[in-house]
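name: query_chain
kind: protein
chains: 1
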Amino acid sequence: MTFAPKPIFSYKKFWAQRFGVAPFLPMSRAEMETLGWDSCDVILVTGDAYIDHPSFGMALIGRLLEAQGFRVGVISQPDWRSAEDFRRLGRPNLYFGVTAGNMDSMVNHYTSERRIRSDDAYTPGGVAGKRPDRAATLYAQRAKEAFSGVPVVLGSIEASLRRIAHYDYWSDTVRRSILADSKADILLYGNAERALVELTQRMARGEAIRDIRDLRGTAFMVARGWKPDASWQENDLTALPDEARIVRFHPHSAAQDATLSREKTVLRLPSYEAVKADPVLYAHASRILHLESNPGNARALKQAHGEREVWLNPPPLPLSTAEMDGVYDLPYARAPHPSYGAARIPAWEMIRFSISIMRGCFGGCTFCSITEHEGRIIQSRSEASILREIAEIRDKTPGFTGIISDLGGPTANLYRLACRDKSVEAACRRLSCIYPGICPRLETSHAPLIQLYRKARALPGVKKVLIGSGLRYDLAVRSPDYVKELAAHHVGGYLKIAPEHTEPEPLAKMMKPGIATYDAFKHLFERASKAAGKEQYLIPYFIAAHPGASDKDMLHLALWLKANGFRLDQVQTFLPTPMALATTMWHSRRNPLKRVSRAGEIVETARFGRQRRLHKAFLRYHDPENWPLLREALKTMGRADLIGNGKRHLVPAFQPAGTGLFHAPSRRGPGKACLRKVRRH
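structure:
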């Protein structure tokens, strides 16, 4: 199957291009008047502070729409308690574009133990409470109230990962598609530039949003039984494969029944009501959704919600390198909006000297949302575009000291990696290109990345280029020259990598390589660091309470940490985010990596209470606060031999005064798992 999408910068520009480029997209009527505007064509509503930088999705799409000739205004962190703040820029001519921000609002608000966070990195001053829970839903509702009849377009990660019925950790229930609750007219999921540009151009030409039903990467609600035209056929997958009379769906091949055309076939998922009542059907629907994620062969999906249904068109087609360059070369101010004054915005401080060089991830880690949102096909910028951005940071960003903090993306070392055969890539239905092993068709050469690093650090005024994004070490071991380059020039003493666990069972549920691969990378890295005359260390990340991890698995991980001299200061406890495959395991206790059936594999999970605390305690075996819980568990597990005061013991027999007191965890709701710091001893 081949596609020839229209390049996003090839459309005729809208008449309002005559107003030129705004120094910042306006956030007030006074700014609009200064620009000579009487109205905005599109108003973007976001839960983040407005930072005009391509690392912030709202700024990126705002500048992209401006480049198409549209007047774009921004309503940042509005007061959601009424519709009044949504009227501050007037009525938009085309639509409101609504996003919760760069982060899911629930992940932003709560820890993985449902405790309320005390700060918000995307708010001036780091102040918490400037956005509501489920921000995208509330913003869409208020925008509808503010101006009756104005369409609302949902986008970004919060909406993207809630496009169908999904398990919600914060309420411990299955919730409806966000389209049903928000009343939005359309949802753009994934990297939405292509759909956004076409949608806006067509609306500007007078097409009603309710009639735009053919855009890839979009979801919308329709009446039961709706289809684009009479030629479309439906494949009913509402029953489990072993309970259905006829099943045409095959998970590992693009082949299908000859009577069905993939381009005009919609797969019917089990309804919202069915997956809410039956966790096994939920797992079945989740498996279908993930297997229908390759833009080269994915079919449309639909899911009934009462008398209506959510229709999902196939995923968006990736941007070409030229299109990626065009998006990142737009005239960003590369600074927070002046209205914030000197207020410190932590997220801006973190990324202002970093550069995104690619998008997407073909790793397929089950606990991660990157693949569900950005797709498996890597989209890379050109070397020239990246070097231009480094020069722009050097010349225009206040406070630059010559250090680029990151050249990365979702993963640091996937730049320009892709399937060698595009026809195979278009037909492939694997959930990962590198698990259970690296696909022989995958290009794994790091030569383009090595060349980019060398050119970047050779730029005048650049003293050092660090790599801050996480590393796929299973790919890095295929390129010893890359490891040498990395260790010699791009590590600031510590390098983040994520083995996540040491034991085969939880690693299989994560779709992560075995710990032997970590050992191989560690050997290469330490040898390269020594050759460069540097003392450098790996920071390995691990997850507690992941689906499939037993108490015994966590004990073995703790013993590995102790044997290798690691003490984790902060640890990550598994957080079930919407739509992730590991979340499906958490909720359903079934394994969606295999065909789902009622008699299929049961995935045990430390869900709540004592066992979840125990799994976290194993990662912090050295903390006296955890010793009473660990002693009790070790005795129950028949491993009292690990209690004592010798080097071979995991926890001591004595208890320091004032430690080990039990504090009941709060039940107020979870969020983003905290970052972990590791120190050697």
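note: The longest strand covers residues 537-544.
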